[in-house]
Amino acid sequence: MHLLNHRFRHFIVTNIKPSLILQFHTSQSKTTTKPSFPNHQTPKTPNPDHEQLTLNQSTILETLSCYNNDWKRAMDFFNWVESEHGFKHTTETYNHMIDILGKFFEFDLARQLIDEMPERDHTTFRVMFKRYASAHLVQEAIDCYKKLGEFSLKDETSFLNLVDALCEYKHVIEAEELCLGKESKDEKFKDVIGSFEMGTKVYNMILRGWFKMRWWGKCREFWERMDKDGVCKDLYSYSIYMDVQSKSGKPWKAVKLYKEMKKKKGIKLDVVAYNTVIQAIGVSEGVDVAVNLGREMVELGCEPNVVTYNIIIKLLCENGRVREAYKVLDKMSKRRCAPNVITYHCIFRCLEKPNEILGLLDRMIDSGVSPNIDTYVMLIRKFGRWGFLRPVFIVWKKMEDHGLSPNEFAYNALIDALVEKGMIDMARKYDEEMLAKGLSAKLRPELVKGECDD
């Protein structure tokens, strides 16, 4: 089945994907099975052998991920597998498509999909809350929650998902007012918060929201408010506030909190809390002390995870100890803790030789870790700053070969590199391609001037 999925994904990326613009957007649109959506002509399968392929949910989700930065192609593919291959979309595939539409503010289409879904779950509306909040449409997110009674999902889980989305996307003021403000006690808010208890979980979300805003003073005030309001602080509360202290330039205070939690509060630390302390102690007392704390963590029966190793690798790289970082990378697989994308990012950032970077990228792919769009953007920018175009195009080709649709950051990084080398015509070509996809291009005087000259 894995081979089948790989073949189908490869077929979609190499055969259908390049034809989408040519077939869908240059030919006259035909009526699809879903006339409520923009009309795009569905592709015809050129290879009859693929008619025998059995499509499954994981294959569809993986292919949709390839179109994560191009909602029109994603929508075309979503409709095509249903109309041409009879695939019955699941709640998960609908949720993924709704997430892509929300990313591009296509909320009308997202709501149409929700209406036609055979079944919705909490994830469906968590996606909507997240996309509304990221678009700064706070009232729309709240209104969406109010309507969940239609789907029998207006419950505490959905409310917590709403609050979490608001806090995640820096609408903490609104979240705090909704949950703990004076207005929250008014009758007009009863249909929003119901009879839900504003306990530790809600307070932790808001504390984390202030942390994401990096409003350190508000973090301290809210930490103190938790005591005043009689809220019981748990392991997650301490983990967030230790992170606050560490990120606000006071890692020694995070270490002090760690000792307080361990001795006075009697709270047993988990791997997340240890990771926060290892990061803080590595910054304040050095990477060797952090490594020793990692050993202590293992002795106490708490197994390190990939984040633990990533922190150690990052600390080593920041201290110029790259060879030791490679040794830690080698040990991870032996200890049944496979590296992830972030592991490689930590090392990429400190490397300075193009061949070594490309070699590590090949090692990453060969080990089964798929680079994401951020990986490619980072490397394109890095090579572009150095003025090396050949590795820029090597990285760009690898990105396309692995089926990732470039986003605005990837395009802008490539165009910047081309402009820097004086390749204006080619830069303009990618600029036009980017705009055709509805992505935001930077205003570049060089390209504007070139157009005026023409």
TrEMBL record:
* Molecular functions per Gene Ontology: mRNA binding
Read off the PROSITE patterns from this record: PPR
Leader peptide range in chain numbering: none
Q: Which UniProt keywords apply?
A: Repeat
Question: Which BP terms in the Gene Ontology apply to this protein?
Answer: mRNA processing
Q: Which family does it belong to?
A: Belongs to the PPR family. P subfamily.
From the Swiss-Prot or TrEMBL record, give the protein name: Putative pentatricopeptide repeat (PPR) superfamily protein
Give the species. Helianthus annuus (Common sunflower)
Q: What is the taxonomic lineage of the source species?
A: Eukaryota, Viridiplantae, Streptophyta, Embryophyta, Tracheophyta
